[in-house]
Amino acid sequence: MDDRVAAALENTFPDRTVETVASTGPSWNDANRTVGVEFADGERIYLKLAIDGDGTRITRERAVIAFVSATDAVAVPRVVASDVDRETPYLVTEPVPGRSLEKRWMEANPAERAALARAVGRALARLHRVRFDDHGHVTGSGPEGLDVETGPWTTVLVERIEAMRSLVPADRFDRHFDRVIEAVEADRDLLEGAPATLVHGDPARPNCFCDERGVGFLDWEIAHVGDPARELHRACDQQIAPLRGCGPDRLVEALHEGYRAEAGGLPSGYERRRPIYDAVRFLGVSGFFEKYVAYREEPADELAAWVEGEMDRRLARLSDGS
């Protein structure tokens, strides 16, 4: 427990005794810190701190959780307290029911993994039923609705890319961001036809949990009104695909089956826009290269050469229309 954690707990739970404070695991967002807290009476909560002092992410997450809970689209954690006006803004949530999707996935056999992938597809489709007139960034509000700073989808997507760039730990592949932004803007006519739905923004397995309803989502701080095709593509990459190559066809199809079962089909324009999202998604690798190196058993220079070549290949596919 450091001073920021202690101050948040004292502000919210002044009369309670803390038994333990523990890390929730590695995070690639160095602007936040999240800990699990257990009180002396056995009750547990999670505390997320915006250690960079920017309360907009906490405001957004609090608003979206309240709104999604009211729509009953998917399961979300319950917010206990938050304070965005302190020097270190924070959000307190209860533990969610059920189990982490990550743990379920690691223990599952192939058939069980396919069932989990279908459940993720269904959950995303239910979330994407929440439609808006325009794309944009969520700035606040709550159960009755969301305040959205609207704009053309291409502009919003470029701003999301720049927000990702602001979080990367080093600038080794900073030029990739410029190249992808140029490609996105060149495909403006294609992108502007995208539907506008509420999207989670980071549907990785650690941000999912399983309960009696299916799959729910944690960590809503980058939720926005975006293209559901991008979110489904991102989920496929984060949930199923290894770093190099594609995920097993049966799992990709299971994810899509689940989505179709709820939505009647994949998002409009999914196949046409998927190539541009291939390039956008890969910024999550090249931008966070130093994080990947720490978890892989291969020389950094060899991995860097592959990253450079892979981005070239993804952007070339856009140029030749493949």
From TrEMBL:
Annotated Aminoglycoside phosphotransferase domain ranges read: 32-275
One Pfam family this sequence matches: APH
Q: Gene3D superfamilies attached here? A: 3.90.1200.10
Family annotation (SUPFAM superfamilies): Protein kinase-like (PK-like)
The name under which this protein is listed is Phosphotransferase family protein
Please give the organism. Saliphagus infecundisoli
